[in-house]
Design brief:
Shape: elongated
Structural class: mainly beta
Radius of gyration: 29 Å
Strand content: over 45%
Strand order of the largest sheet: 22-21-20-19-18-28-27-26-25-24-23
Distance between the termini: 42 Å
Number of domains: 2
CATH architecture of the largest domain: Roll
Oligomer: single chain
CATH class of the largest domain: Mainly Beta
Number of strands: 31
Number of helices: 6
CATH topology of the largest domain: Lipovitellin-phosvitin complex, beta-sheet shell regions
Largest sheet: 11 strands, antiparallel
C-alpha cells in the first residue's frame, strides 16, 4: 500500500499574461509558461468550453463549468453526485480526455488543483485516474491504471493495490472547500508500484476526473478541478481525441526543423573498417591478421499503418596474412576476397521490434535470429537522454563458449556530441555496452571459441534515431593447457551519405492534420526556434476570425500579427525507436568469409 503523507498547498495566483488575455477576451489563444516542458492536456484550465473533454454521468450526477469558483481564469470544472437512495447504488459524474502519444516515455509530470466538499474517508469517492496504454520492448502491450484519491470510502486503503494492474495513491491533508495543489512524477509512481520502467513507452493516456457517491449520503457531494496538467520533457505533439486541432511548441533548440519521419525511399549509408589479429603460443604457434573495408546501406522499402520494412545491403572486401599453423585456415600466407549480402527487416512501428526478417546469413548468424528483438539499427530518440539506459538484444556467450545467444541487456546512453551530416550540424548520442563476448576462432576438435571482454559504442542521431556510427573493440583468449592464442579486434564506421533532410528548414503549420497522420510509434514531435521557454497552444485558423469579432479595431492588427508569428513558429519533426547488438563473426572452421561482426 502506497500512501502520500502530504499535499502541497499553494495560494491562488493569477498569471499576468493569462489575465491580460482574459481582459482582451481572447479565449482561443492560450499561452502557458511551462519552462521547457510540453503540455499534453488540452484545455486543462477549462477556459475554452468543453474542448478536449468528454463528460459523462453515473446515475444522478452532472459535470459543469463553474464560474463561481475558479482557481484561475474564469472557470473551473465542477462534478457532482447526489445522495444515493440505497447502499450499493453509485451516483456521480466525471470527464475524461484521451491523449494519443505514441512512443512517449514515462518521464511525465502530473499536477492539478482540487477543491473538494469532503476529503479523506468520506461518503464519496473523488479521484483522478490515469489509464496508461503501454508497449514494452519484449513483453508487448499492457494497460495499467494509476489512481489518485482525494476522498475515498472508509477502509479503502486496506485494499489498495489488490489489483495487479492498478496503483492506488491516497492524498492526505487535503483541505475541504479550499484549493489544494498536487504534483508528482508518473515515472516515480510507476516504478514505486511495478518496478523499473526501462523498456516501456506510452501509446495512449486516458485521464479521468470522477466523483462517485457510493453510500447513502445526506447532501450532494461535489469537487472542483482546475489547471489540470500533464507535461513531457522536450517536445511532443499530441492530439486530444475530443478537441479541436492544437499545435504545441517549446523552445528546446536554437534551430527550426520540419516534420520528419522515415518514409518509403529514405536511405542512409555507412562506411567502415574492421581489423582483427591473433597470436598463438605453445604448440599453436603463428600469427593471423585481417583487414576489411565495408559499406552498409539501409533503405526504407515499405511502410503501412503498423509496420515499416528496411533493407540492409552489406558488402566489402577483406585481405589476410598468416604464419605458422594459421596458414592452414587462411589457405596460404595471404588471402583476400569480397562479399555482398542483403537482409530485410519488417519492424513493428509501435515497439520497433523485428517481426519478420529474411535474407543472406552472416556466417552462423541469420536475419531470422533477430525476430522478437528490437531493431538494432534504430532507437527511439526519446530514449537518448544522458544517464538513461536502453534495453537491446545483445549477443552474449554461452557458458561453454561453444556458441552465443541473444539476450536483452542494458546499454548506457551518454556523451552527446555535435557532428556534421551533409554539411549540417546534428546532435549524435552514443550508447555503450561492456560485457563478455566470443572471438572469431575456435579449435576444430572441441569447437570452443576464444572468450573475453567486448566494448561497444554505437552512435545514433537525435532526429531520426538511426544508426550512424560504431566504435567496437575486443580482447579474447583461448588457453588450453599451456598453448592457445590471444585475439584483438576493432570495428569503426560512420555515416557517409543519405537522402534524409538534416538541413535547417522552416515550414508553416496549418492544422493538426499535418502531423497526426503519422503512424503510431513514429511519434510526431515539434522543434521550434524561440528566445524564451514559452509553450504555445493555438487553435486552427478560425482564431483570427474570432479575434476580429472580440477585439477593438486598434488591437486586431497587433494580436493578429502575434497569432501569425505563433503559427509560423510551430514546426514539426518526427522520431523513431531503435536498438542493436553484436555477435561473433564467422569462424573459418565453418564457412569461410570475412570476420566482420554480424548484424548486432
Amino acid at each position: 500500500m502506497a500512501k502520500r503523507t502530504s499535499l502541497r498547498i499553494r495560494p491562488i495566483l493569477f498569471s499576468s499574461l493569462a489575465f491580460f488575455l482574459v481582459v482582451l477576451g481572447v479565449s482561443t489563444l492560450l499561452i502557458h509558461p511551462v519552462s521547457g516542458n510540453v503540455e499534453l492536456i488540452v484545455n486543462g484550465d477549462f477556459e475554452d468550453d468543453w474542448k478536449g473533454w468528454e463528460k459523462y454521468s453515473l446515475g444522478r450526477g452532472y459535470a459543469a463549468l463553474d464560474p463561481a469558483y475558479p482557481h484561475s481564469g474564469q472557470y473551473s470544472l465542477s462534478i457532482q453526485g447526489t445522495a444515493t437512495p440505497q447502499s450499493g447504488v453509485v451516483y456521480g459524474s466525471g470527464v475524461n480526455q484521451t491523449v494519443e502519444a505514441a512512443g512517449l516515455p514515462l518521464d511525465l509530470q502530473f499536477s492539478f488543483w482540487v477543491k473538494p466538499s469532503s476529503s479523506g474517508q468520506a461518503a464519496a469517492e473523488m479521484k483522478a485516474v490515469l489509464t496508461l496504454h503501454l508497449m514494452h520492448q519484449t513483453l508487448g502491450p499492457k494497460i495499467l491504471k494509476m489512481v489518485y484519491y482525494v476522498a475515498w470510502e472508509g477502509g479503502a486503503e486496506s485494499w489498495a493495490n489488490v489489483r495487479p494492474d492498478e496503483a492506488d495513491y491516497f492524498l492526505h491533508d487535503v483541505g475541504v472547500l479550499a484549493w489544494n495543489h498536487y504534483q508528482g512524477s508518473i515515472r516515480d509512481d510507476f516504478e514505486n508500484r511495478w518496478g523499473a520502467s526501462t523498456g516501456y513507452s506510452l501509446s495512449k493516456i486516458v485521464l479521468t476526473l470522477q466523483i462517485g457517491v457510493t453510500n447513502v449520503a445526506r447532501d450532494t457531494q461535489y469537487v472542483n478541478w482546475d489547471d489540470v496538467s500533464l507535461t513531457a520533457p522536450q517536445t511532443i505533439a499530441t492530439t486530444a481525441t475530443n478537441g479541436a486541432s492544437v499545435t504545441v511548441a517549446t523552445s528546446t533548440t536554437s534551430q527550426q526543423r520540419q516534420n520528419m519521419h522515415l518514409k518509403v525511399g529514405d536511405w542512409w549509408s555507412m562506411k567502415g573498417s574492421y581489423h582483427t589479429s591473433a597470436t598463438s603460443y605453445g604448440s599453436d604457434y603463428g600469427t593471423y591478421a585481417e583487414d576489411d573495408q565495408y559499406a552498409e546501406r539501409f533503405t526504407v522499402t515499405a511502410r503501412d499503418s503498423s509496420r515499416i520494412t528496411v533493407s540492409r545491403d552489406f558488402s566489402g572486401t577483406w585481405s589476410s596474412t598468416a604464419t605458422g599453423e594459421w596458414e592452414e585456415v587462411n589457405e596460404g600466407p595471404t588471402n583476400s576476397g569480397s562479399w555482398a549480402r542483403t537482409s530485410i527487416y519488417v519492424i513493428d512501428l509501435e515497439s520497433l521490434i523485428v517481426v519478420n526478417a529474411t535474407g543472406d546469413s552472416d556466417g552462423d548468424i541469420s536475419p531470422e535470429d533477430y525476430v522478437g528483438y528490437p531493431a538494432w539499427f534504430l532507437v527511439n530518440p526519446m530514449d537518448l537522454r544522458d544517464g538513461n539506459t536502453i534495453q537491446r538484444g545483445t549477443w552474449v556467450p554461452n557458458d561453454d563458449a561453444r556458441d552465443s545467444r541473444i539476450e536483452l541487456t542494458a546499454w548506457s546512453v551518454g556523451n552527446p556530441q555535435t557532428i556534421q551530416i551533409k554539411g549540417h550540424d546534428d546532435t549524435a548520442w552514443s550508447i555503450s555496452y561492456t560485457g563478455q563476448g566470443l572471438g572469431n576462432w575456435y579449435n576444430d576438435y572441441d569447437r570452443i571459441y576464444s572468450k573475453g571482454t567486448v566494448r561497444r559504442i554505437w552512435t545514433f542521431d537525435s532526429i531520426y534515431g538511426i544508426f550512424i556510427g560504431i566504435s567496437d573493440s575486443g580482447d579474447y583468449t583461448r588457453d588450453r593447457q599451456g598453448s592457445g592464442w590471444t585475439e584483438k579486434s576493432t570495428d569503426t564506421a560512420q555515416i557517409d551519405d543519405t537522402n534524409l533532410a538534416f538541413s535547417v528548414q522552416t515550414t508553416q503549420t496549418t492544422s493538426q492534420s499535418e502531423y497526426t497522420t503519422s503512424t503510431p510509434g513514429l511519434y510526431t514531435e515539434i522543434w521550434t526556434v524561440a528566445s524564451t521557454t514559452t509553450e504555445t497552444v493555438a487553435t486552427s485558423q478560425d482564431m483570427l476570425n474570432q479575434l476580429g469579432e472580440k477585439l477593438p479595431g486598434g488591437l486586431i492588427g497587433l494580436v493578429g500579427i502575434i497569432a501569425i508569428v505563433v503559427v509560423l513558429l510551430a514546426v514539426t519533426v518526427t522520431r523513431r525507436n531503435r536498438k542493436r547488438a553484436p555477435p561473433p563473426p564467422t569462424p573459418p572452421g565453418e564457412t569461410r568469409g570475412p570476420t566482420l561482426p554480424e548484424d548486432t
